[in-house]
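Entry, Tuesday afternoon. Goal for today is a structural model of the target with zinc ion bound, before we commit to ordering more compound. Inputs were pasted exactly as handed over by J.K., no edits. I checked the ligand SMILES twice against the vendor sheet because last time a stereocentre got dropped in transcription.
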Amino acid sequence: MNATCQRCERPMPDQAFACASCADRASQQLAEIVDLTPAARDVAHGLSKRQGGGGGSGKPGSRLPFDLTATSKLDAVQGELIGWVRHIAEERGVAVDLHGPGKPRDLIVGASEWLQGGLEWLRHRQEVSEALSGFDAAVRVVRGIARGPREQKYLGPCGAERRVYLDPEDFGGFDDITCEGDVYGPTGGHNGTCRTCGATVDQGERKAWLDDEVRSRAFRAVEIEDAYGVSANLIRQWATPARGLVNVHAQDREGRALYLLAEVLDVAAGQAAKRAEAQAKRARRAAQRESEDAA
Ligand SMILES: [Zn+2]
Ligand SMILES: [Zn+2]
């Protein structure tokens, strides 16, 4: 009797619940999670740094237009992976320490590395299919967060009004709520879609609103550097009385200077334009000299 892989439904030479090539694929996915997690964490941390302020009314503008779901998605991935670590460790009666000295400090990384060593054992267990689905979903989430911004642009919180029925069987009671979902659109596309309620928005309008929303706020120099690539040192120089190009708008609780983003970006754009002009001038002169030399 030939056993069939629960995952790919191909016949297997050995008696197991999943074939070696499915386990191999899972191993690659776990390795990819190890690789991409630091980048995904950066996205989550960088974004969640700006969570402060704003209430929870869910209207666009009541919170900063950054992706606040990345952190909770990574929490879910971590929970899923650690759940499998615990399960395998318990079933096999082995001790596991993901926190110990010399272990990676990131629990997603630690769990993924540990799980790679458990795949061959898992292959012979009935629950292997469930586990491999979990790893497959996990790598998609981590990949999506780490690479997402390039493929799908975050377009802010949704804010659409929608009706939620309290009892799906009885349409008598309902709440009209403001959707707190996140809107994404393909880079270069026209529309964006809310991942929670499916509402569609125009990317151009959204972008203008987001720009306004963010530009009118003040951030620390390093935050602006992180988000927009304008050197924090440069920003601080621009704010010195000698340069006077930007003002210190306010100070945060720790007394650190906050700069109005709009002001900083305007100065940065102005300087970039000047640089481009100077460069073009140099290029023109060089071309002129060349043609003179050739003559
Ligand atoms: Zn298979
Ligand atoms: Zn929505």
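The pocket of zinc ion (ligand 2) is lined by residues 158, 160, 179, 181, 194, 196-197, 199 (CB under 6 Å).
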